Amino acid sequence: MARLARAAGRGAGARGGRAVSPPLFETRAVTKRYGGLTAVRAVSVRLEPGELVGLIGPNGAGKTTLFNLITGADTVSEGRVWFAGRDVTALKDYQRARLGMARTFQNIRLWPDMSALDNVRAVLAPGPGSGAVAAVLRLPAFRRSEAALTARAEALLDRLGLRAHADARSVDLPYGEQRKLEICRALALEPRLLLLDEPAAGMNPAEKAALMATVEELRRERNLTILVIEHDMKFVMGICERIYVLDHGEEIAHGRPDEVRADPKVIEAYLGGGAC
Amino acid sequence: MGGGAPLLAIALGPEGYWWANLLVLVSVYSLLGLSLNLINGYGRMFSLGHHGFWALGAYGAGWLTVALAGTLPGPLVFVLSCLFAMGVAAAGGLVIGLPCLRLRGDYLAIATLGFGEIVRIAIQNSPRELLGGAEGLTVPRVLMEVGPETRAAYRLLFVGLGLVLVVLVAAAIRNYVRSARGRAMLATAQDEVAAGLLGIDPTRSKVAAFLMGSTLAGLAGAVYAHYQGNITPLEFGFMEMVKIFLIVVLGGLGSISGCVLAAFVLLFVEQWLGRLPDSVGWVKEWWQVEYALVLVLLMIFRPRGLLGPRELTDVWRAWRGRRAAAPGRGGGAP
Q1: pLDDT value of residue B330
Q2: Residue B284 touches chain A, beta carbons under 8 Å
Q3: Using one digit for the tens of pLDDT, what is the confidence trace for B149-200?
Q4: CB contact under 8 A, A142 and B333
Q5: What DSSP letter does each residue of A192-224 carry, written as one string?
Q6: What was the ipTM of the complex prediction?
Q7: Domain spans of chain B, in order of start
Q8: Which of A90, A203, A237, B21 is 20 to 30 Å from B292 at the Cα level?
Q9: Euclidean distance between the first and final Cα of chain A, in Å?
């Protein structure tokens, strides 16, 4: 109850500021066609700074495709993607990421043979003294930059309770820890926008509840704006302030969790699709 | 690697030429293996054009040495020719790398294989006065005169030079891999899509690995050309590529110490085969088949190489740990 009230308050605040501050992130009628198949059709999503928004829909609705269009993993057929006040449609994935857009993956995509620590360190922006020559010669500047990177990475691992696994190869971590490490690695980019693709998939209810709490805390600590794809309705309804619903690549509903839940089109899509 | 006195004793003994020659070749092939390891091991790009970069380096160094011999002090010519060889090989790496690194797996292998063959055939058909054509190029001795009395000393000089270079290059690669750039390279190799989406420029990482690998193969070529004093295109054929690849796989893709050890083992066996009596001469005559067979068996049973990405020190630690009945911490990442 308290969470709902707080969410409503924040939502109102964000709406109030909309006229003044531009959205952090926006897709303007993005469309993706693969040959004759339209995976995403004219979807416009808009996130105010600090919002936690859900993206739901039956299997094959185009949620992950939309994530790919947002992050630059795939190119749009039509439409524009805006991030932090600029049109990023023409930017490559790594360029968008460096602007502060990080994601996790539905199927875990850690770097398997690298340690948990190195998975995080690889993403952290290296400071001065990290160049190839300084590294090969192990100059003092390199040692300092390396020590700073390690300290930052360890702090992040600590934050998500992964410190004990720092030296383990990421592929050797238990499944749930791998999911957490993905979030940890995404945070290493120091993102403003965090895109979570089914972060709770495969977790048991207790783990899901813990993850929900963590995501909520991280958002407040780090002023994150979060867009999350999740199949677990309890998870989505529990933490999201707004929800977009996709079906067959189109937005069919959009609004507060209670509005979306009551929307006949959403009920139709889920019951008709037979997947819930 | 030190211990000059026993080395000297060996080199001057009756078996001296043989051992010294073996150690120089081990250094050259270690450099080749270490550099290919950057591309195929750490970088996980399947390149089969390393003999091309090696040839570019050898002929680059040879050409410049011919041009400069007598005009400048010998050691300076040697150093300049090594740098030039690295530059030529790096240029070759850029030419083949930039268009081809979009290719993956088999396609990259075929494109780089083609490149290696093109280099060899181009040299073979080059004008005689430029690179010696099919007859080969004679590289003037710029470091010291080589006669019957000084041959041992010359070999010893190259044993030292080669071993120092191997140690330097191995340390440089190890340091590079354990740095921000190195982690970007490993991340790109292990999941390129994830790397790109997490702010790492995959193309840059791949080109860097490819470029460093080809440059160091050029250095190996320069040392080889100066050591041999005469190089022919036939020495840089595809079977040499197989040898280098076998060294990398034997040692473990992504293992530095394993690579050097494998170079030693392979060349020792090869040189030793050459001394077999005629009655078992077939063992030597069939070496191409035997190498291929070893490679096939390795690929089936140990696709990441004998050691995998581990170093000899990791293996030693694991072995000691197991003896102490402590729970071993599985293969440490490089």
Answers
A1: 41
A2: no
A3: 777 788 889 999 999 999 999 999 999 999 999 999 999 999 999 999 999 9
A4: no
A5: SEEEEESTTTT--HHHHHHHHHHHHHHHHHHT-
A6: 0.87
A7: 4-235
A8: B21
A9: 24
C-alpha A86/C-alpha A67 separation (Å) is 18
Query: Where do the H-state alpha helices sit in chain B?
Result: 4-12, 16-36, 50-68, 74-100, 105-124, 128-131, 151-177, 180-190, 192-197, 202-228, 238-251, 256-273, 281-285, 287-301, 312-323
Which residue is it, tokens 């197991």? B322
Tell which of A105, A107, A114 to mutate to test the B interface (max B CBs under 10 Å).
A114
CA pseudo-torsion sign A91, A93, A98, A101: positive
Gyration radius (Cα) of chain A, Å: 19
Could you tell me which of B198, B240, B194, B193 has the C-alpha nearest to residue B221?
A: B240
Q: Which residues 6+ apart lie within 8 Å of A107 measured at CB?
A: none
Cβ-contact B274, B283 below 8 angstroms: no
Q: For A208-260, what is each residue's pLDDT tens digit?
A: 889 989 999 999 999 999 999 988 888 888 889 999 999 999 999 999 998 98
Amino acid at residue number A153: A
Verify whether the Cβ–Cβ distance B309 to A136 is below 8 Å.
no
Residue B184: list chain A partners with CB under 8 A.
Answer: 122
Cβ contact B191–A94 (<8 Å): no
Q: Which residues of B touch A147 (CB under 8 A)?
A: none
